[in-house]
Amino acid sequence: MKLDRPEWLTLPAPDEDELMRMKRLLDAGHLHTVCESADCPNIGECFGNRICTFMILGDVCTRNCRFCAVTPGRPAPVDKNEPEAVALTARQLGLKHVVVTSVTRDDLPDGGAGHFAATIRALRREVPEATVEVLIPDFRGDFEALNQVIEARPDVINHNVETVPRLYPVVRPQAVYSRSLELLHRVNAADENILTKSGLMLGLGETIPEVIRVMAELREVGCHVVTLGQYLCPSPQHLPVVDYITPDTFAQLEQIGYDMGFDAVHAGPLVRSSYMASQTMDKLRSIYRRRGGEEVGHD
């Protein structure tokens, strides 16, 4: 039975002029965004504020996760000019915090890690004052590939566990929960100045105790930031929504996350992994200043 969408998930229609203005700028650089490819509900707000999450390595994914709106199939060859195009567009947009993600490229020997590293380096050259966050795939457990990203020294490495381990065979059958936790652990062990981040979608049939257990396991591997949002079904071919999680439940989970020791927790029905990432970075800067720790961001 299809559930009725609750009123708290109602959003105003996006401003078409703002959408087209951003699309023209992105198209000029032959760039993709996860905002468009993943049917993000916040695209109107973000594009209206001249904010986006760049999606590198094309717009076709080698995996076919049943929750994701990104097109699966055989990707095009890697565009070697893309890192520079991302950096130049970030400068044109005046971004102070740049978020870069990708499709999963299991067809590439390094899973696209070298392309991530090249993009980070290009951003450092073009917008040296900006902080850089990358949302990466699991590189099939290739930790030499992961090291390429770590050595490029982004400010944040995000890797989403997406759901609870019980649901992996249905939700993301080509991924491994323990592998994702190990990835985050290795980042923390390799460079204590890189913040780690992960996120989950709720409403796929998980229980709240299962969610809390995943949050606890993320803290055990040293994850600094967690995001929790409502899963929304992109099409009839995707997994259905099992439950709509109330704003009160999200608020309770957010408090539980802070009690666990996360530096930042962003939980709500419309929260997505990179939603309000710049504000989260500002919050982290303030926290670390108060603690007397090292400033967020690399020289």
Features:
alpha/beta; two-stranded parallel sheet; 14% strand
What does this structure look like?
The chain has 299 residues and is an alpha/beta fold. 39% of the residues lie in helices and 14% in strands. It has a single domain (12-290), classed as Alpha-Beta Barrel (TIM Barrel). It has 11 helices and 10 strands. Strands 1-2-5-6-7-8-9-10 form an 8-stranded mixed sheet, sandwiched between helices. A two-stranded parallel ribbon has the order 3-4. Helix 4 packs parallel to helix 5 (113-126), helix 6 runs parallel beside helix 8 (177-190) and helix 9 runs parallel beside helix 10 (247-260). It is globular and about 45 Å long. The termini are far apart. The model has no long low-confidence stretch (mean pLDDT 90).
Identify the CATH architecture.
Answer: Alpha-Beta Barrel
Anisotropy-based shape: globular
Report the biggest beta sheet as strand number plus sense, adding barrel if it closes: 8 strands, mixed
- How many structural domains? 1
**Helical content (DSSP H or I, runs of 4+):** 25-40%
Give the structural class: alpha/beta
Query: What's the CATH topology label?
Result: TIM Barrel
- How many H/I helices? 11
Element order: H for helix, E for strand: HEHHEEEHEHEHEHHEHEHEH
CATH level-four homologous superfamily name: Aldolase class I
**N- to C-terminal distance:** 54 Å
Strand content: 5-15%
Catalogue the unreliable spans: none
What is the CATH level 1 assignment? Alpha Beta
Physical arrangement of strands within the biggest beta sheet: 1-2-5-6-7-8-9-10
**In terms of quaternary structure, what is this?**
single chain
Specify Rg, calculated over alpha carbons. Answer: 18 Å
